[in-house]
């Protein structure tokens, strides 16, 4: 059983981040039980896959976050898909994707993650991404990002700071494994000689954050809970995530009704250094 941090009010960033880490590890352990036992795949209304692992992981995270002394609105993938979306005012809100890279999980590839983020004033300021099948956790708060190992599914060890690298030429590009689009192919083609790696889930942000890649072009749909935690870690490590007009990607409900209010526009995430074009 994981112990809870002593205090975790939204203003207490260190305690909040350690709560995110503990809940992500606990959710990851539940996901791994399903990964090892095998799990039935169902289809959501939008035809995307969902499993008992998604639901159990989300229940663990939401129960933990509900113990926060001051209630902060929380938008999480499976609840939102079922129509449960809180009002997100000016005081910040949480974004949770209990199992990002569900297609990788189903196909028994280890690049799937648990994601918990805090958004303030439209920017992702705290984030934890945990890849339980890789035993790797990433965390970030303004000014510092970390990678830690989790070998036993319970305990975090070997915590080390991570930073983005200055953009290499040609750049190293990470792109979606399961959701590539012609526009992504065209972006890659504009960088002759670039080494391209296909990776599922929010790990793409973390690979840039730890300096092992330079660019993540996303010319295909995502939801804000897919990206907020990884984006927070990337920004904390010195990178940025930009809309195609060069402005920072922002978070929070946008214009539409229901779940579509949390759809993201296309973006390019990048490490430190100048943009190649
Ligand atoms: N047509 C679509 N509309 C909205 N989001 C989509 C989508 N196709 C894929 N995604 C999002 O892309 C995520 C996977 O990204 P990647 O391809 O980088 O692994 C999915 O997360 P889930 O696996 O949590 O459902 C899903 O939210
Ligand atoms: Mg997702």
TrEMBL record:
Annotated compartments: Cell inner membrane
Main localization of the protein described in the UniProt heading: membrane
Matches recorded under Pfam families: Inositol_P
EC category: hydrolase
GO molecular function terms attached to this record: 3'(2'),5'-bisphosphate nucleotidase activity
Catalysed reaction equations from the record: adenosine 3',5'-bisphosphate + H2O = AMP + phosphate
Keywords: Cell inner membrane, Cell membrane, Hydrolase, Magnesium, Membrane, Metal-binding
Positions that bind substrate: 77, 99-102, 226
Cofactor needs: Mg(2+)
Entry's family note: Belongs to the inositol monophosphatase superfamily. CysQ family.
Known function: Converts adenosine-3',5'-bisphosphate (PAP) to AMP.
Protein name: 3'(2'),5'-bisphosphate nucleotidase CysQ
Source organism: Nitratireductor thuwali
Organism classification: Bacteria, Pseudomonadati, Pseudomonadota, Alphaproteobacteria, Hyphomicrobiales
